[in-house]
Specification:
Number of strands: 5
Strand order of the largest sheet: 2-1-3-4-5
Number of helices: 9
Shape: globular
Structural class: alpha/beta
Radius of gyration: 17 Å
Largest sheet: 5 strands, parallel
Order of helices and strands: HHHHHEHEHEHHEE
Helix content: 40-55%
Strand content: 5-15%
């Protein structure tokens, strides 16, 4: 619920034209502020278990409005991220169909190999709907597992080429030291889902 609230703030702040992370940094000057960050909510505990509780509550005659509302907001973030990436590319004068995009990370959280219910897959599929060509690089994920679970090809070594769009989807330690200027084309864009790249990114969630 806390993460969905911050995600909803990010959706609102995007329309206002202010940076969510700037707002969170300012709010963090209050001593008792709990700093939740917007993002993709995958895995099993947070993204799946609430549905079990909601199902049981419904069986008992109670409709859990807050829990289900939170899940709806979190589940829509992948589409929002893909839309932001495409808009940034258009703003830079790029052609979307056939554009090459590099997705950094496919696990559901950083520095672990777990791909269960990862929402990065939803971002990938949303970008594929725009007919972009996707490369997924994740040194932590098992390519065979990703292929089996989601039908997607992944690589474990950083490719030696440049992309129209680079999306930092998971904040693995390996990604933070990358030279993003070498990864993107001259008019390429970098979108930071995790809010860890600072000035290296053209935009962030």
């Amino acid at each position: 619920v806390n993460i969905s609230f911050v995600n909803e703030l990010a959706l609102i702040f995007d329309r206002v034209g202010i940076d969510t992370n700037d707002v969170l940094e300012a709010a963090g000057t209050k001593f008792n502020f709990l700093k939740y960050k917007p993002g993709l909510v995958g895995g099993h505990c947070i993204s799946v278990d609430p549905y079990y509780l909601a199902h049981k509550a419904t069986q008992l005659g109670y409709h859990p409005q807050v829990i289900l509302s939170g899940r709806r907001v979190n589940d829509m973030m992948a589409q929002f991220i893909a839309g932001k990436v495409v808009k940034l590319m258009i703003h830079k004068g790029q052609s979307i169909k056939g554009a090459k995009a590099l997705i950094l990370g496919v696990t559901f959280k950083e520095n672990c190999p777990d791909v269960r219910n990862t929402k990065v897959v939803d971002v990938v599929k949303a970008l594929q709907d725009f007919e972009t060509e996707i490369t997924i690089y994740d040194p932590w994920a098992n390519p065979e597992e990703v292929k089996h679970e989601y039908g997607l090809e992944t690589i474990c070594e950083l490719p030696n080429q440049q992309y129209d769009a680079v999306v930092l989807a998971v904040s693995h330690n390996e990604f933070k030291a990358l030279d993003f200027n070498k990864l993107k084309k001259d008019i390429g864009i970098v979108f930071d889902v995790k809010g860890v790249l600072n000035e290296k990114a053209d935009a962030r969630l």
